[in-house]
């Protein structure tokens, strides 16, 4: 019995070596940070990476117990880096133990294989974030009081769940950038993925830094639900191409989510924040609700530059998403119409040949028939 031939391992620190072993390398780095907690000298630095920073204790009155809140600061960058490493490790686990096994059963092409992996990773993240976001919103007052979005601005104090939610969101979308290299994403797919990764990073970080975490959380939850439905529908489609009903529901919810985003954004930036008592700009207080410097006379509204910039960014993003959505639906409609036309051509019955007209002299189907109804023997006897 011969020995099995082992695949040659790539050279150390080569591109292929890093791609194959990136999860192990990142795990070692995360373990080094965790081991730092064991030593008093390095513990204060390790804690900065692992735990949420900028704890603020507030007591509402003398009878109630003090409540812990959190603010943001520069040390949050270290926490984001650590959970970025955790996101890389979880990404590799989902890929190896779930998606790769499903891909072997489905036998997909290279193009569908790449899209299947993308949808599988994003569906898992959207599901987790949607459930987490809903659990945070259930404890808030938004369902009964929409003014919760702007009342008391600036919202410099966050609960632990809210701050940790934003830390994990920023870390996940930043980890998606090196994953383009680790997962060997095709060159034609890189620009499309870079667009939405950068949009997520900019918008989520902007809501976190500008103390608009309430509005950001309310807008993210329905958006993640719609994206979850899309990627789940795409996973079912790859397993069976006849399963396309989920895309119809996704199209309906996508439009509703865009309208909801625009409505809440205009309500917050156009009517809520301009009427708050705390107007001004202060980095120390985290107040970005600046006073009027330039009024937008052409529109006839009284939007401050900060609010106008935020609202314009959200509106442009929603317009871009709707444009991509319309193009996607038109492309699918054209493909569907072409497939239907092709099926009609292939399934239509063949045209029947027309009956040949009788030839001169009574020839039908090559046989000449005489007009005389008597038999040939009778005609011969008659002639004789």
TrEMBL record:
GO cellular component terms attached to this protein's record: endoplasmic reticulum membrane
Pfam families: TRAM_LAG1_CLN8
PROSITE patterns the UniProt entry points to: TLC (PS50922)
Localization annotation: Membrane
Region listing for Disordered, in residue ranges: 339-384
Entry keywords, A to Z: Membrane, Protein transport, Translocation, Transmembrane, Transmembrane helix, Transport
Biased composition (Basic residues): 342-357
UniProt topology in membrane: Multi-pass membrane protein
InterPro entries: TLC-dom (IPR006634), Translocation_assoc_membrane (IPR016447)
TM region(s), chain numbering: 29-52, 80-99, 120-144, 164-182, 194-211, 217-237, 249-273
PANTHER family: TRANSLOCATING CHAIN-ASSOCIATED MEMBRANE PROTEIN, TRANSLOCATION ASSOCIATED MEMBRANE PROTEIN
Protein name: Translocating chain-associated membrane protein 1-like 1
Lineage start: Eukaryota, Metazoa, Chordata, Craniata, Vertebrata
């Amino acid at each position: 019995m011969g020995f099995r031939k082992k695949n040659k391992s790539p050279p150390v620190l080569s591109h292929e070596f890093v791609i194959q072993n990136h999860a192990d390398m990142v795990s070692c780095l995360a373990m080094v940070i965790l081991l730092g907690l064991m030593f008093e000298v390095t513990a204060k630095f390790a804690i900065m990476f692992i735990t949420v920073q900028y704890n603020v204790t507030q007591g509402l009155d003398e009878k109630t117990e003090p409540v812990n809140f959190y603010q943001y600061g520069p040390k949050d960058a270290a926490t984001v880096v650590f959970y970025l490493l955790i996101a890389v490790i979880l990404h590799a686990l989902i890929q190896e133990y779930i998606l790769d096994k499903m891909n072997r059963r489905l036998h997909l092409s290279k193009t569908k294989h790449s899209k299947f992996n993308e949808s599988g990773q994003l569906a898992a993240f959207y599901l987790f974030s949607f459930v987490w976001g809903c659990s945070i919103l259930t404890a808030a007052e938004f369902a009964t009081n929409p003014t919760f979005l702007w009342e008391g601005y600036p919202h410099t104090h966050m609960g632990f769940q809210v701050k940790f939610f934003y830390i994990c969101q920023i870390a996940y979308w930043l980890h998606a950038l090196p994953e383009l290299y680790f997962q060997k994403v095709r060159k034609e797919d890189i620009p499309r993925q870079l667009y939405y990764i950068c949009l997520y990073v900019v918008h989520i970080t902007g809501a976190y830094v500008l103390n608009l975490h309430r509005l950001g959380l309310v807008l993210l939850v329905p958006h993640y639900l719609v994206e979850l439905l899309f990627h789940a529908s795409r996973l079912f489609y790859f397993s069976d191409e006849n399963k396309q009903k989920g895309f119809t529901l996704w199209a309906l919810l996508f439009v509703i989510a865009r309208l909801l985003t625009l409505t809440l954004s205009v309500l917050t930036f156009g009517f809520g924040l301009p009427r708050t008592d705390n107007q001004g700009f202060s980095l120390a207080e985290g107040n970005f609700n600046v006073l009027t410097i330039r009024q937008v006379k052409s529109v006839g509204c009284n939007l401050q530059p900060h609010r106008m910039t935020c609202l314009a960014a959200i509106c442009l993003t929603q317009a871009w998403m709707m444009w991509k959505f319309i193009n996607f639906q038109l492309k699918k409609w054209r493909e569907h119409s072409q497939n239907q036309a092709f099926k009609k051509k292939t399934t239509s019955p063949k045209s029947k040949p027309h009956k040949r007209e009788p030839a001169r002299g009574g020839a039908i189907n090559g046989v000449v028939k005489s007009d005389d109804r008597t038999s040939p023997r009778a005609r011969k006897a008659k002639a004789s």
